[in-house]
């Protein structure tokens, strides 16, 4: 097979050339051309657009970033208008560019030609090799092989346990679709697109006793609407693999903004179409907007209270008595077979709101368990990392103390170097361990933490305390809560708060 058929994911690099000066439309024309080119070839792409026009690489922020990504083997090719867009500066610049492209077998693609720097017939090869020869090519190539390992991971599954309905195949290191789970997944998707809410879908799944997709303690709670929501919005199901959440720069792991994460077509089978995904996202966006009629005479819980038995939104009814009126919440849903939902309603009195406020402001057991499970490892790592950092600081202090002793003439040079050597060894080991911890921590940054939930709760408290009317109270609830699931049994009221 032609190597070039393997191009799936490219970077598009845009920069004004010297003589184009202030003409911004030149750049946007180039952007249109290159994006259209990538689309026509069915490649996924990430744009790197240079603002300003520094001549050398050091002055061009985006090319630096791009070269680092190329060195990591993140792309099959880099798409540019002309090859000289990449660099026009000095010899060192070109050396850096060659090194990145040549050693990772990354193509340079222009609308006219694809340059494969490792192929004999490419006229550029000679120049590149001449430069590389000066750079001890073999040594560099060896060092760069690490980048190729990252490249080999492209499209491979490296993120632990995959989302429903996928399962991980240890042998192939790929994720595969489980046929039975796929049926359930497709049913979920269809139901959502037909207008069922995520809450209703979770009720439906639990009613049918479909095994929930977690292991351990969480299983006893069955499916939750949060789980359904996460599965529905996932881009993994479109066939993508997301990576590049962190990047190593001079040996330090750095966080990358979510916008800059790299999304690559994976090797696994997609289970939904882009069109379906767009419809899902459109529905979610729509649901986030509160219907206009809710705003008139909003109650604190308008649109937020759901019945645990049938999954429907509960209704509020006003009752008038001799001593004034009060509101009640009740479920009025009738199943298609004519039976009414047997949920018992309740008066929305002070005691009810007090119970709810307490429930919300006190992190409940289930939320904690959920968050805990995810965070246990994270916190252990963090603690370990801090401990190692303390040890490192102590070691560094010890080294400094030795130097002071030496400078004060209280220690002979020979003893100094012996003792320093021991400390340096410890220092290096500690630094390596800290690095490992940091990398592991970085890979988990997108998780919800107890602190995040707590922070929102504090925001809620502040809003709630300052709320002067029910619609402001409603706003406070909506900030924090996706929905409140109401259940009333003989033993009293049970409220389950589902955080956003
Ligand atoms: Zn109901």
From TrEMBL:
Pfam families: Recombinase (PF07508), Resolvase (PF00239), Zn_ribbon_recom (PF13408). Residues 163-290 form the Recombinase domain. It comes from the Bacteria. InterPro entries: DNA_bind_recomb_sf, DNA_bind_recombinase_dom, Resolv_N, Resolvase-like_N_sf, SSR_resolvase, Zn_ribbon_recom_dom. Signal peptide: none annotated. Residues 9-155 form the Resolvase/invertase-type recombinase catalytic domain. Keywords: Coiled coil. Residues 371-440 form a coiled coil. PANTHER family: DNA RECOMBINASE-RELATED, DNA-INVERTASE FROM LAMBDOID PROPHAGE. This is Recombinase.
